[in-house]
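User: Okay, second chain of the day. Same drill as before: sequence in, structure tokens out.
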Amino acid sequence: MPKIVSELVREAIRKVKDPEIGLSVEKFISRVDVDEGNKSILVEWVPTTPFCPLVLAISAAIIYSIRRNLNLEGWSVKVQLDRSVPTAEFWNSQLADKDAVDKIISNLETSGQIKYFITE
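Assistant: Same drill. Structure tokens below.
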């Protein structure tokens, strides 16, 4: 099952794009870990630049796409930058705040800006 879930997660990630370059963020994903026992998914990625101003929005869009495209009731979905990114500690400390990330997702949805990050 984790391999199937991992492939479904990658399929959901393919729908997320970096609006600045217009490409799917899939090629920037360095790790997808599915832990079926703990019902958790961890996605790590590398932005095109360590100082990318869209890190939080793109990370939120990745979570949004996974939640929207997979029926994973009760699962935890976490996205963070790969540790090789010089600014990973800074961004990951913000991405660790689930309430803040959920608020970003909500703001992207209510403002209609999510459409700039998701392809159908």
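The two ends are 25 Å apart (CA to CA).

User: Thanks, on to the next one.
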